[in-house]
Amino acid sequence: MTELTVASLHISPAIFDPFPGLIAAESTRHGGVSPAPFSSLNLGINTDDSQSNVDENRRRFFTAIGAPAHAFASSYQVHGMKILYTVEAGRFEGYDALITDKPGLLIGVTVADCVPILIYDSKHRAVAAIHAGWRGTVGSIVTKTLDQMKQQFGTSAEHCYAYIGTCIDECSFEVGAEVAEQFESELKRVDAETGKGYIDLKRANANQLTGFGIPVEQIGVSPFSTVLNNSDFFSHRAEHGQTGRMLAVIGLAN
């Protein structure tokens, strides 16, 4: 099992290290003020945690990633396919992916088992933040987002760098037959003894990135699992719905 070496507030994806003008990070559950079951860096607004706790946790997170004064845009996610192009801060509703090319504006998604995907178009200096649960993955939200970036910015695969963030791992993501049948055979495994099905969401979304043409060496994948590393990350499944949320954010510095 992969373990965090430091109880940090966030992880900075190494795939984006060559771009000093880019801010990209995913939070952990460490370093916040929220009590159990949201302990401690709960960044999710739609939880039973107090708003003051979430506000302070977000202040700490954005300060830690060097963006305390940056604007921030996100959405109330609905496991749908809608993608928002935004140039202003705000909390929108009904979108599961956001794209922007505005410096000084961070965009982000909240997760607690679903897959966060961050994308940077280095030529056109545009970014995307995507929330992909199993429905979004089946619906190819990553591919749809890249297609919209191509239309909006002229994005091409060779200039894209992407990060697949911390989410539920294949060995923990047990699904019923009605879900398993919607995935290609290479993305699912059936336990020979129990007959239970398991889905690899990281691989499924990586396939969409490479399917668009992004080179494998320009894709980073988190080695962590929300379930196996539950002491470091929130997991909706492992904690039976009583837990906090992480943020995965990306944007261009001012």
TrEMBL record:
CDD domains per the UniProt record, alphabetical: YfiH
Keyword Transferase attached: yes
GO molecular function: copper ion binding; hydrolase activity; S-methyl-5-thioadenosine phosphorylase activity
Key words, A-Z: Hydrolase, Metal-binding, Transferase, Zinc
Catalytic activity: adenosine + phosphate = alpha-D-ribose 1-phosphate + adenine; inosine + phosphate = alpha-D-ribose 1-phosphate + hypoxanthine; adenosine + H2O + H(+) = inosine + NH4(+); S-methyl-5'-thioadenosine + phosphate = 5-(methylsulfanyl)-alpha-D-ribose 1-phosphate + adenine
Family annotation (Pfam families): Cu-oxidase_4
NCBIfam families associated with the record: peptidoglycan editing factor PgeF
Similarity comment text for this entry: Belongs to the purine nucleoside phosphorylase YfiH/LACC1 family.
Name the UniProt record assigns to this protein: Purine nucleoside phosphorylase
Native source organism of the sequence: Spirosoma foliorum
Gene that encodes the chain: pgeF
